[in-house]
Specification:
Two copies of one chain form a homodimer.
Chain A: H1 2-19, H2 29-36, H3 40-52, E1 56-59, E2 63-66, H4 78-84, E3 105-106, H5 119-131, H6 145-156, E4 171-174, H7 177-189, E5 194-199, H8 203-211, E6 215-220, H9 228-238, E7 242-245, H10 261-271, E8 275-279, E9 303-308, E10 320-323, H11 327-340, H12 345-355, H13 358-385, E11 390-391, E12 400-404, H14 411-420, E13 423-424, E14 426-427, E15 440-444, H15 453-472
Parallel strand pairs in A: 3-13, 5-6, 5-7, 7-8, 8-9
Antiparallel strand pairs in A: 1-2, 4-10, 9-10, 11-12, 12-15, 14-15
Chain lengths: ~475, ~475
């Protein structure tokens, strides 16, 4: 009778457990006694059976619970789908961040090869930082004061007479460009509000803007830069208060705005009471022209300026600065402090050490001809082996060729086919905040060894030939 | 006649310039000629006069503009007020981040003194990292794989038999706790949606939540932790999908949840299809109890776990990990990648080096009695010299005493008066997501030299005496 009773309890509970979520609490022994008209011994026996079957677990003083492991377990996170809902925005790792097979030819990344970096300076600086105060202390939220002063002085050196130069406190040290952009977009634009943005432009800026949930308004741009009148109309039409741009050696096409465009754009944003967010990412990566930051012309806080050292010092020294004035500075600093509190003092000390060494200027001087040679070699390889891939604008600086493919080319298909043949390239799609204006790929001439450029161009040439044939067939 | 004409033009333009915004473009020479019936020479003369007066500047090929500098310049960023609008949320630097006069007694900060850090290990690790691959290369967005594995193994070691432990890929390396919290709140809660949060709790979590624009729903907590039934009702009432808590050595009071509370809270979030965001900030700062992460009991992805090394390794080695599974992991990783792309490999290599040295365990063992002695010394000093300041719960770990002041005390006034006498303390107000539940201050016993505890307590005692007298007078 007792046996029967306990079996009945076990049977009923097993049916319930089959559909119960892992971790669900079983009815108390008292409740089971009442329900089945059974005594405590019977109920305890049933429980021991369920525990023995591995179906439940008892936590003394808390209760008995459906075990979350039943035999060899396949994790099911399906419940999260309801908890999380549909994502607000597509956030994905960029294809430029992919790690690839070691024997593949990588023209996709956004970074320079190690031999283009001041390795000796970086290692010595990090070693010194390891011995310094910076290794064991906290840094102010706005940054290492001497590094702030260096960033401000670099910009001030470009300011014409009569313009009040950026002050050290205007420079906020951040952990790389994306961190700076995220804070600028959150603090200065805000969720749901419009941000004007060059198109095409740096995918990281597009991603940061999407993360900040701002509404993107593309402004067509290219080698000649954006049209100030179009910018003016877009500011008026959308009520936007900010325009993101890369006037110097833009990513992807390496172009520089014509000399008169910077002042003209500054004039537009001044009249419209708006900000220019100037991303001077390639300041140290000049080839055939010198950088002239628009921010150097500004002294009313209309330009929020971003300069990074990640690509010219080392990817491991993730240090950049946002230079902003007035209330915008305060808002950006408050956002940074909430987001990450401060940037490691070791990295800041090392960055400052590198850029204040006598070897730094020499390194930058030596870098120019190296970038030029690489740019020209890849261009020549393409001319020879992939004539259908056209570089419409020879970059004046930066790391990349922006390559137009024949009209109607399936860009994603080309990227896939190249990968099959051991060549990794980045689809141009990622550089457009909306639909791409044409079939583009971006090729980094600074990351891969130039010995492999010919092979890369041959693969691309064959893939484009095949794509052309199948497109026409 | 020419002179008269050009003077007239100058006069009219000066009136216009007085009210024009800096950077405004002047009418073209052609327009001025037409308007004033003057010849080109007259207009050019007027322009030269205005330039000579420093009122305008000419940019060849672009136009003539109102100069933004007029004599000794006071920058006016007033225009930004309209562009930025009112802030969505109060974001401010915490008082715990203040830099103070070197002779002041600082009990306000959230960091341990340098002699409580493994300085020798940290410096050696940073020096090795400076010589390693990590110094010159990029790190994957999710983190250095070996460091991911270490964080996962630490949590897995606490998992009872039968629970599927966290895997290395579940651990995402981030640049400190605030970065992790910001991404969790953005990715898992989202703007405008409710987040349940212990009250009082870590001000950095409150700040990160406000930055993520989530709606805070305080859940009363304290030495006994939150009431699971209250949590259950709040989840049901608000439809919230996440609860932020510090079950182990909570900041501010250093308490640990009772053994049964973790499973009970896990049960509640499981039944409600919600997440527990467990901030295990003081895992390495145990004194009288061992940490038992709730996350170790979870294998359905209900707990998102955060562990930081900033306070136990070095403030300069800003490395933490978020351990999450399922779609939540993917969303958090995507948010991190958009926000900062990756964490410096130098810091990750150094952190991994420190925590895998034989000296690390020894350091943690030696740390316990040091923290205990400091905690007890500060407690005794308060008993002796500031009896009105009551430590209701002796912390089991962490760095702080949570001190209740007499009912009705003006906390901000006490903080100010202490500062006047050279003692810096943190107002408890910052630890409450809504109105404070009482007059509290937080005192860090781990940052200042214990030799100064008596003096600190004497200052606080006198300030409280004065406050009591003036309150009663």
């Amino acid at each position: 009778m007792d046996d029967d009773s306990s079996s009945r309890i076990v049977r009923e509970l097993r049916r319930w457990i089959e559909t119960a979520p892992a971790g669900a609490r079983l009815p108390s022994n008292r409740a089971l006694m009442a329900r089945h008209g059974a005594g405590p011994v019977t109920v305890q026996k049933a429980m021991r059976q369920l525990i023995g079957l591995g179906l439940v677990e008892s936590r003394p003083g808390v209760g008995t619970f459906v075990r979350s492991i039943r035999g060899p377990r396949v994790a099911d996170y399906g419940w999260q789908t309801a908890a999380l809902g549909a994502p607000h925005r597509r956030l994905a790792l960029s294809s430029t961040q992919r790690t690839v097979a070691p024997d593949a030819i990588g023209l996709h990344s956004g970074y320079p090869a190690r031999d283009l970096l001041p390795e000796r300076l970086v290692r010595a600086a990090l070693a010194r930082a390891a011995r310094s105060e910076a290794a064991m202390t906290r840094t102010p939220a706005a940054g290492h004061p001497e590094l702030q002063a260096w960033f401000a002085a670099e910009l001030a050196a470009a300011a014409p007479a009569g313009v009040t130069a950026a002050a050290p406190r205007d420079a906020l040290v951040v952990a790389g460009s994306p961190s700076g952009l995220s804070s600028i977009f959150r603090a200065v634009v805000g969720p749901g509000r419009p941000l004007l943005i060059e198109s095409p432009t740096y995918w990281g800026a597009i991603l940061a803007a999407e993360q900040a949930a701002v509404e993107l308004v593309p402004i067509p741009s290219g080698p000649a830069g954006p049209d100030p009148e179009e910018l003016d109309r877009a500011l008026a039409r959308t009520g936007s208060r900010a325009f993101y741009a890369q006037p110097t050696f833009a990513n992807p096409d390496g172009a520089q705005w014509p000399a008169a465009l910077g002042p003209a754009v500054l004039d537009v944003v001044r009249r419209r009471g708006a900000f220019l967010v100037e991303d001077d990412w390639a300041h140290d990566l000049a080839i055939d022209a010198d950088p002239h930051p628009v921010a150097a012309l500004d002294d009313d806080g209309h330009v929020i300026y971003l300069r990074s050292l990640t690509k010219s010092v080392s990817p491991a020294v993730r240090v950049a600065a946002v230079i902003a004035r007035g209330p915008a500075r305060e808002r950006i600093l408050a956002d940074r402090a909430a987001e990450s509190m401060y940037v490691s003092g070791v990295l800041q000390a090392a960055a400052l050490d590198v850029v204040t060494q006598p070897g730094w200027r020499g390194h930058l001087r030596a870098l120019r001809p190296q970038l030029r040679a690489r740019r020209d070699l890849l261009g020549q390889s393409l001319d020879r082996h992939a004539p259908a891939a056209r570089v419409e604008h020879r970059p004046l600086g930066g790391l990349n060729l922006w390559v137009r493919l024949p009209e109607g080319t399936d860009v994603e298909g080309v990227v896939r086919d190249c990968q099959t043949h051991g060549l990794i390239v980045a689809a141009g799609t990622e550089w457009f905040p909306a639909e791409p204006a044409g079939p583009f790929i971006r090729l980094n001439y600074a990351g891969e060894h130039p010995d492999r450029f010919d092979e890369a161009a041959r693969i691309l040439g064959r893939v484009l030939d095949d794509a052309g044939r199948s497109g026409g067939g």
